[in-house]
Amino acid sequence: MNRFSHKHSGRSPLKGLLIPLCSFIAAMAALLYGLSSISDVTASEQKKSLEAALSRSIMDCYSTEGAYPENLDYIEEHYPLYYDKDRFYISYQPIGSNIMPVVTVIDKKP
């Protein structure tokens, strides 16, 4: 009996690759799903942080100057407010000098 001679069992060489290939595809799909959910959480946290910074800057202006800022440009010029303008849009609607303005932060890239 020759132990180095192989009897051809009729199995295709692709059948041996099927399980590792499926495992690789499943692992890559899980990785991409995890990365996208991390990205969503990060964007949400950035928005919350920007809303808090805006509120803080508006209140700082009111407590220092006795009136709410007239527009967003005034806040950016006189108070430390930096944000990604390509990522977020800020709607700033002043109501009066002694009434807090309506501020809405919109994420441009959902």
UniProtKB/TrEMBL annotation:
**Which species expresses this protein natively?**
Murimonas intestini
Q: What is the organism lineage in this UniProt record?
A: Bacteria, Bacillati, Bacillota, Clostridia, Lachnospirales
Name of the protein this chain belongs to: Sensor histidine kinase
